[in-house]
Design a protein that fits this description.
It is built from two helices and nine strands. The chain has 108 residues and is mostly beta strands. Strand 5 and strand 6 form a beta hairpin. The longest helix is centred in the N-terminal third of the chain and has 5 residues.
Protein backbone atom coordinates (compact mmCIF):
# COMPACT_ATOMS: atom_id res chain seq x y z
CA UNK A 1 0.00 0.00 0.00
CA UNK A 2 1.44 3.36 -0.98
CA UNK A 3 1.34 6.19 1.52
CA UNK A 4 0.33 9.82 1.06
CA UNK A 5 1.49 12.68 3.22
CA UNK A 6 -0.94 14.52 5.45
CA UNK A 7 -0.52 17.57 3.19
CA UNK A 8 -1.55 15.46 0.17
CA UNK A 9 -4.57 14.11 2.03
CA UNK A 10 -5.68 17.62 3.01
CA UNK A 11 -6.04 18.42 -0.71
CA UNK A 12 -9.00 16.02 -0.99
CA UNK A 13 -12.25 17.91 -0.37
CA UNK A 14 -14.98 15.66 1.01
CA UNK A 15 -18.44 17.17 1.54
CA UNK A 16 -21.78 15.77 2.61
CA UNK A 17 -24.27 15.82 -0.23
CA UNK A 18 -27.98 15.06 -0.38
CA UNK A 19 -29.16 13.05 -3.40
CA UNK A 20 -31.98 15.01 -5.06
CA UNK A 21 -32.48 12.84 -8.14
CA UNK A 22 -31.13 9.52 -9.32
CA UNK A 23 -31.59 7.49 -12.49
CA UNK A 24 -29.91 4.72 -14.42
CA UNK A 25 -27.49 5.67 -17.21
CA UNK A 26 -28.87 4.48 -20.56
CA UNK A 27 -27.02 1.45 -21.88
CA UNK A 28 -24.99 0.89 -18.72
CA UNK A 29 -25.94 -1.86 -16.24
CA UNK A 30 -23.65 -0.63 -13.45
CA UNK A 31 -24.03 3.15 -13.62
CA UNK A 32 -26.34 5.56 -11.81
CA UNK A 33 -26.55 9.30 -12.47
CA UNK A 34 -27.06 11.28 -9.25
CA UNK A 35 -27.98 14.95 -8.90
CA UNK A 36 -26.51 15.98 -5.56
CA UNK A 37 -27.06 19.11 -3.44
CA UNK A 38 -24.05 20.41 -1.50
CA UNK A 39 -25.76 23.49 -0.11
CA UNK A 40 -23.85 26.19 -2.02
CA UNK A 41 -23.72 24.17 -5.27
CA UNK A 42 -25.11 21.10 -7.01
CA UNK A 43 -23.23 18.45 -8.94
CA UNK A 44 -23.90 15.51 -11.22
CA UNK A 45 -22.13 12.35 -10.07
CA UNK A 46 -21.89 9.16 -12.14
CA UNK A 47 -21.31 6.11 -9.98
CA UNK A 48 -20.92 2.37 -10.65
CA UNK A 49 -23.26 1.29 -7.85
CA UNK A 50 -26.37 0.25 -9.80
CA UNK A 51 -25.83 -3.46 -9.09
CA UNK A 52 -26.25 -2.78 -5.36
CA UNK A 53 -28.76 0.09 -5.32
CA UNK A 54 -31.81 1.19 -7.26
CA UNK A 55 -32.30 4.93 -7.85
CA UNK A 56 -35.18 4.98 -5.36
CA UNK A 57 -32.85 3.68 -2.62
CA UNK A 58 -30.71 6.82 -2.77
CA UNK A 59 -33.07 9.78 -3.24
CA UNK A 60 -33.24 11.98 -0.14
CA UNK A 61 -30.25 10.37 1.57
CA UNK A 62 -26.98 12.11 2.51
CA UNK A 63 -23.56 10.65 1.76
CA UNK A 64 -19.92 11.85 1.64
CA UNK A 65 -18.57 12.79 -1.80
CA UNK A 66 -15.18 13.88 -3.08
CA UNK A 67 -15.99 17.18 -4.79
CA UNK A 68 -12.64 18.39 -6.08
CA UNK A 69 -11.79 15.61 -8.55
CA UNK A 70 -11.22 16.54 -12.15
CA UNK A 71 -14.48 16.15 -14.08
CA UNK A 72 -14.65 13.00 -16.19
CA UNK A 73 -16.87 11.76 -19.01
CA UNK A 74 -18.37 8.32 -18.38
CA UNK A 75 -20.62 6.87 -21.10
CA UNK A 76 -21.17 10.37 -22.46
CA UNK A 77 -22.19 11.80 -19.07
CA UNK A 78 -20.02 14.20 -17.07
CA UNK A 79 -19.19 13.09 -13.55
CA UNK A 80 -18.30 15.97 -11.25
CA UNK A 81 -17.17 14.05 -8.18
CA UNK A 82 -17.22 10.66 -6.48
CA UNK A 83 -19.39 9.05 -3.81
CA UNK A 84 -17.45 7.27 -1.07
CA UNK A 85 -18.22 3.56 -0.75
CA UNK A 86 -16.85 0.25 0.47
CA UNK A 87 -16.76 -3.00 -1.48
CA UNK A 88 -17.76 -5.89 0.81
CA UNK A 89 -17.84 -9.34 -0.81
CA UNK A 90 -18.78 -7.87 -4.22
CA UNK A 91 -21.51 -5.69 -2.72
CA UNK A 92 -21.28 -1.94 -2.41
CA UNK A 93 -21.85 -0.41 1.02
CA UNK A 94 -22.33 3.35 1.21
CA UNK A 95 -21.05 5.48 4.07
CA UNK A 96 -23.81 7.41 5.82
CA UNK A 97 -23.82 9.64 8.92
CA UNK A 98 -25.44 8.27 12.06
CA UNK A 99 -26.85 11.72 12.92
CA UNK A 100 -28.40 14.52 10.87
CA UNK A 101 -25.73 16.65 9.21
CA UNK A 102 -25.90 19.88 7.27
CA UNK A 103 -25.89 19.53 3.48
CA UNK A 104 -22.48 20.64 2.24
CA UNK A 105 -20.71 20.06 5.58
CA UNK A 106 -17.02 19.40 5.05
CA UNK A 107 -15.63 16.09 6.30
CA UNK A 108 -12.60 16.83 8.44
Amino acid sequence: MSKVTFEQFKQVEIRMGKVLECERVDGADKLLKLQVDFGDFKRQIISGIAESFSPEDLIGRTFPFVVNLEYRKIRGEESQGMILAIDVEDKTVLLEPTSEVETGAEVV
